Fold this protein.
Amino acid sequence: MGQANLHLHASAARPDEHAQLCAYNTAFGELGLRFRWDSSTLSAFEHARDEKDAIARYLETHQPYLLKAYDVEFLSQLILDKKNQRFQVGT
């Protein structure tokens, strides 16, 4: 399991979960996306290959209309990059 994937295993006991969720939700807001993740969203993607894959799976499953305008690879990388500006692995 890759290091980035470790951060997808969210639970209420994890001190970084709130910071990671804030980083994702801030990224979504800054990109004009009108959805938010919560603890259950993170845990639903715990078996994803990595964060980018989890984001892509979420977009394909829950926000497919966005993929009519944006390539899933492009949009998932954009979200991940924006999220990583707010939350760094190991911080």
Observations:
- Residues 3-86 form one domain.
- The chain has one domain: 3-86.
- Residues 73 and 91 are 26 Å apart (CA to CA).
